[in-house]
Write a structure and sequence with these properties.
With 431 residues, this protein is of the alpha/beta class. The chain has helices at 28-38, 53-59, 77-84, 101-108, 123-143, 175-188, 204-208, 216-221, 225-230, 247-254, 264-273, 289-294, 308-324, 349-360, 375-382, 387-390, 392-405; strands spanning 22-25, 46-50, 66-70, 90-95, 113-118, 158-159, 162-167, 193-197, 233-235, 238-241, 279-283, 299-304, 336-343, 367-372, 409-410, 421-424, 427-430. The chain folds into 2 domains: 22-143, Rossmann fold; 158-416, 3-Layer(aba) Sandwich (Rossmann fold). The chain is globular and about 70 Å long.
Length: 431
């Protein structure tokens, strides 16, 4: 450390941060070396790489279960410790060789810091320790809520987390249809899944055969893990929190600060990190509440109509995410997926995508699913049935989206499909 209290020099080491989800933060060369060393280990899933302090802070919103950090990103121990206090997962910190014993001890005293190192680190030796710490934290957080409430008996359960917001800036495009059936499919595949409605008045109780209450206002009055439990209704193995019963309660939510205990981001965070859900699907409305959901999501599904106005509205929605919200929470294009709903005699998928790319001025995110315009889909919802189980055409059309988003690793020792790197929300996720 120099006279100004800043760290200088190069930190020479390989370090690792393992867990269900892992964020690597450090200079580019360091992150690259760590990622190369860890990507072959099936216990590890690197969610993102952060190469500066601001980027690392932003990517904490994805709630990595373990953070592996090269302290060279920070000007000194003060900014480092301030950053570490915001981390919720287990942290392993590589300090520069010139760090003093008191500085090392100061970092070690931060609650979530599980390891502090100076110099090189043996990744092979540290990996097992990190993995054990991650599982212990997960078990501790889930223990107070009867673990996962809807986990199938005897199931291994997935390792990982998907927070998926289904959205567009225009109503009537089929967001609720897609979010409902995507969540139902996730639960049917054995993933502990929570569907959250943010409509006002919300359609979920009507089309899923649920009661008007409990709903999201139950969480509003008891913003705790227990309040979350009391807000839930079930459709088979899918857990559902119905949205707002009226526009007045929605207005109250809009005026609630995002850092408040009963905010939408904190609801999603509680579901993901204390109730143990592997998949959280948010049916977001075309209002400002969508930004609250997106702020803690790692995947965005844009539902659009196959029409020119659908192109315009969807491109504007994407610009909102990629440009206007980028400073707070940027979901890159490869974590955004497009669903064209009610395909008929309007624009073909290729025409729609060309028009969107032209309007955007660069390549638009890919169209993952094309949902047919079938009367059976509406009839199923009128009968309070899930279209996924009522229409083979709908099920086939939704499958590519479900396959893309639900590639979550099984627990160690459980056979799973080959790993593939996909980009989810603000992070690049190894699944």
């Amino acid at each position: 450390m120099n006279a100004n209290g800043t760290w200088q020099g190069t930190l020479a080491s390989s370090n690792t941060h393992e867990s269900v989800t892992l964020l690597l933060a450090g200079p580019v060369a360091r992150c690259t070396a760590w990622h190369t060393a860890l990507q072959a280990d099936a216990r590890f899933r690197v969610t993102s790489l952060a190469t500066d302090a601001q980027d690392a802070r932003a990517k904490l919103s994805a709630h990595p279960e373990i953070l592996l950090l090269d302290a060279a990103l920070f000007a000194g121990p003060g900014p480092l410790v301030d950053f570490l206090t915001a981390v919720e997962g287990a942290v392993y910190v590589l300090l520069p060789p010139q760090a003093t014993p008191s500085e090392v001890e100061g970092v070690r005293q931060v609650e979530m810091v599980k390891g502090v190192f100076t110099g090189d680190i043996n990744l092979l030796e540290l990996a097992g320790r990190m993995y054990a710490d991650a599982l212990a934290l997960r078990q501790k957080r889930a223990g107070g809520l009867d673990a996962v409430w809807n986990r199938p008996t005897g199931g291994s359960g997935p390792v990982g987390l998907r927070v998926i917001t289904v959205w567009n800036q225009m109503g009537g495009v089929g967001k609720t249809t897609i979010s409902t059936n995507l969540a139902y499919e996730a639960a049917r595949r054995g993933f502990p899944t929570l569907l959250i409605g943010l409509g006002a008045p919300d359609d979920l109780p009507l089309i899923l055969g649920l009661k008007p209450s409990p709903n999201i206002t139950s969480w509003w009055t008891n913003s705790s893990p227990d309040g979350l439990r009391l807000s839930i209704q079930k459709v088979d193995t899918l857990d559902v929190i119905a949205g707002f019963p009226d526009v007045l309660s929605e207005a109250q939510a809009m005026s609630t600060p995002v850092e408040a205990p009963n905010s939408i981001p904190n609801l999603i965070k509680t579901a993901a990190h204390y109730a143990g859900y592997a998949v959280v699907v948010v049916d977001a409305p075309p209002t400002s509440l969508a930004a609250n959901a997106i702020s803690v999501s790692n995947t965005l599904v844009l539902v659009a109509r196959p029409s020119l106005e659908g192109v315009m509205r969807t491109v504007e929605a994407y610009r909102t995410i990629s440009e206007r919200l980028a400073g707070e929470h940027r979901i890159p294009s490869n974590a955004v997926h497009v669903v064209l709903n009610r395909m008929g005699d309007r624009l073909a998928a290729e025409e729609w995508h060309r028009a969107a790319s032209s309007m955007l001025g660069r390549s638009f995110p890919p169209i993952i699913a094309q949902i047919p315009d079938e009367a059976a889909i509406g009839h199923a919802q009128d009968q309070r049935r899930v279209p996924l189980a009522a229409s083979d055409g709908f099920a086939r059309a939704l499958k590519p989206l479900a396959d893309q988003l639900l590639q979550i690793n099984s627990a160690p020792g459980i056979a799973s499909s080959p790993k593939k790197t996909i980009n989810l929300g603000i992070v690049k996720l190894k699944v």
